[in-house]
Known about the structure:
There is one protein chain. This protein is mainly alpha-helical and about 240 residues long. The protein has 2 domains: about 10-75, Arc Repressor Mutant, subunit A, CATH 1.10.10.10; about 85-230, Up-down Bundle (Four Helix Bundle (Hemerythrin (Met), subunit A)). Helix content is about 70%, strand content about 5%. It is built from 10 helices and 2 strands. The chain has a two-stranded antiparallel sheet with strand order 1-2. Helix 6 (about 125-140) runs antiparallel to helix 9 (about 190-205) and helix 9 runs antiparallel to helix 10. The longest helix has 22 residues, at about 100-120. The two termini are about 45 Å apart.
Amino acid sequence: MFNITKAKSRRISHTIVEQIRDAIFSGELNPGDRLPPEKDLADDFGVSKSSLREAFRALEALGLLEIRQGMAGGAFVSKPDLETARNSLFNYIFFQNPSIQEFTQLREFLEPPAAEIAAGKISDADIADLEENLAQTEKQLDSGSFYYELDTYFHHRIAEIAGNSLICFMIDSLKNALVIMKQQLDLRPEFSVNVLTRHQRILAALRERNPAKARAEMLEHIKQVEQELIANSDEDVPFES
């Protein structure tokens, strides 16, 4: 059992969420642990079952609890998966409604250094994987549609090669938001061609194992994307309000 204090009358469910979340983060509760029965927990918190269930739903949405049904059911502590975490960050980004310039600035902090690190770590197998990605991209380009999944994978793969899981997570989350932005804009056909060309230049630098060049090429690519998005946007906001 973890330490419990009576929930405050205001924002009761939020207080419960905070206490259970803190217990998980502190190690009092671990993935796989089963919480006490609903009635006992409601009594300990001094709340109704409906308030407790509301808190459970919030914790389940955060990926911190799993609610199982049946005789062996109950509320179990779970470890948030990557998809849940990415969606949470994407939702936050969406409601912040950042400008294209803000997106670009954050990408500049993350992706050029990742490309620089990747150039010093990349293997022949990694290069072959990226080459296949660009070959598939060229085929997709011939169909006249933008290759969102291939574009996202190219950037994800470079971050993965760099070996920093946090940078990889952030880049993946940003790319998901960027896909929504691009889908809302009436991008010219040249945009896809320019992206492919820049990806080819980045790969050439990686193939040379040239960290400085890989960093510079990635930075130039990000700046070019910014210019293209702004040129195709009536207002400098990525999401429709």
